[in-house]
Amino acid sequence: MRRTQREAADGLRRTGGAPVVDVAGSGARRTARWRRGTDARGRTARTRGRVLAASAVLTAALLVFHSAVPNAVGRPGSLLEAFLPWLGLAVPVLLVAGLVRRSVTALVAVLLPAAAWAVLFGGLLLPADRGAHDITAVQHNVSDENPDPAGTARALIGSAPDIVALEELTPAALPAYEAALAPEYPFHAVEGTVGLWSRHPLTDVRRVDIRPSGIGEGWNRGLRCGVRTPRGEIAVYVAHLPSVRFRSTGFGSGPRDESARLLSAAVAAEKVERVVLLGDLNSTVDDRGLAPLTSRLSAPRRGFALSWPAVFPVARIDQVLTRSATAPEVWTLPATGSDHLPVAARIRFDAS
After folding, report:
1. What are the transmembrane regions (predicted)?
2. What distance in Å separates the CA atoms of residue 2 and residue 186, rounded to the nearest whole number?
């Protein structure tokens, strides 16, 4: 013991009193841990990264079981579903974190949300079916503050649609839209703030009452028109559902959901088999608030077509839905003077 103490004292004298650090020894221990796959706390590639793995499992669960998220208070379920595809951003983040942590458990767990997202939304990224179609439709909330109605109308004509549905029409701007669209679309109907322009004759035009309770008279945002296409008559509905609001009590979607139920009842009663619904529905097709409609009508098969807000679109709330018809592809058109992007879709009628 005395010899060891003397040797330590001699070592301190040789180093000027500074402690000696066994760098070689600690480096060797780190190298050994690396080779064994353990970290400083002795965790292996299989046992570390459990928090990351749990986060991956939670993300996958939210994607697959989003309908299980309660909606009674504050409607968090609808809020989640309105932006559901964006949960996919968690996948690359978790993947990079798992690589940094060198965690096999986390990397395997990341496969769960990746697979769930691919099943739910991967098909929208596949190449569009651009085969034969019967009509092309354009849907656009033109904004009641649009500074250039005529320019907006000309931009929509450029995509050569057969029918054009517009929302947020104002009495002041309506003449400009009518004048610009009339040469290409001689048939049109307007009800309140929504309207339809068509290359083909219109029949049985009428207002659709989708006014939720608590909103006074004069609120007209629903329109139904028969359109006589070369392939037969279709019923076209144009609608603008109430906006949602973020309040202290949560996601305020009650009026919109009620309006969706009223619109669904009108579609259910429609006698014409082929139906096309064009409108600003103020949510995505994944939102359970639109389930009364999406349970009766089909959404496009290809394309995300995020339409709102125009400066940085995060959701497609402008919809093209069909019955006894399919929309093989949906896409957005260049920005206009609106805070929404126009949405276009090719529509193919089912065999009658």
Report:
1. 51-70, 82-100, 107-126
2. 109
CB atoms within 10 A of CB 131: 8
Which residue among 105, 124, 143 closes a domain?
A: 124
Assigned domain for 18 exists: no
* pLDDT single digits (tens) 323-341: 999 999 999 999 999 999 9
For residues 225 and 308, give the distance between their C-alpha atoms in angstroms, rounded to a whole number. Answer: 26
Backbone angles phi, psi at 26, to 5 degrees: -65, -40
The 8 Å CB, 24+ separation contacts for 45-50 are: 45/102, 45/103, 45/104, 45/105, 46/104, 46/105, 47/105, 48/101, 48/102, 48/103, 48/105, 49/97, 49/98, 49/101, 49/103, 49/104, 49/105, 49/106, 49/107, 50/105, 50/106
What's the rounded Cα separation, in Å, for the pair 101 and 115?
A: 22
| C-alpha 209 chain-centroid distance | 27
Classify residue 26: in a domain, yes or no.
Answer: no
3-state secondary structure of 123: helix
CB atoms within 10 A of CB 161: 24
In a domain, 153, yes or no: yes
Give the model confidence (pLDDT) of 19-58 as tens digits.
Answer: 555 555 555 555 555 445 666 555 665 668 899 999 999 9
Nearest of 222, 183, 223, 179 to residue 199 by alpha carbon: 183
DSSP state of 122: G
Name beta bridge partners: 196.
Answer: 165, 189
Q: Do the strands 318-323 and 275-280 form a parallel or antiparallel pair, or are they unpaired? A: antiparallel
Burial class (CB in 10 A: 0-12, 13-18, 19+), 242: buried
Domain boundary at 86, 107, 124, which? 124
- Of the candidates 217, 244, 250, the one whose C-alpha atom is nearest the C-alpha of residue 308 is 244
Give the domain extent around 341. 132-349
Which helix (H) or strand (E) segment holds residue 308: the answer is none
6 occurs within a structural domain = no
